[in-house]
Amino acid sequence: TLYGHIHTLVSYENGGIPAYISGGGGAEPLRGDGIDRHFLVIELDPATGGGVAPGGLVGVDVHHIE
After folding, report:
1. Rounded Cα–Cα distance for residues 34 and 45 (Å)
2. Average pLDDT over all residues of the chain
3. In the predicted model, is pLDDT for residue 43 greater than 80?
4. H or E segment at 2?
5. How open is the CA angle 34-38-13, to the nearest 5 degrees?
6. Are strands 9-14 and 17-22 parallel, antiparallel or unpaired?
7. Integer Cα distance of 58 and 20 in angstroms
8. Residue 66 in 3-state DSSP?
């Protein structure tokens, strides 16, 4: 199960189904949890019925244009 939109990453189980909340690609991230802007990478495997496996996080470099 994939959810958004808190500005960090949380993973847990929801009724026995792996669940991921990710919202780190835009606004200011939550402070104090050590997770900065990111994208959640997932892998879908049709051989296992299309289950979602976390592929990890990809960090985002932020560039400010003035």
Report:
1. 30
2. 68
3. no
4. strand 2-3
5. 75
6. antiparallel
7. 15
8. coil
1 in helix, strand or coil? coil
Unique residue bearing structure tokens 């104090």: 32
Which has the minimum average pLDDT: 2-11, 25-34, 38-47?
25-34
Domain extents for the chain?
A: 2-59
Structure tokens at 61: 């470099």
Q: What is the DSSP string of 4-65?
A: --SSSEEEEEETTEEEEEE--SSSPPPSSSS--SEEEEEEEEGGGTSEEEEEEEEE------
The CA-CA-CA angle for residues 61, 34, 57, to 5°, reads 55
Structure tokens at 2: 């994939």
**One-letter amino acid of 52:** V
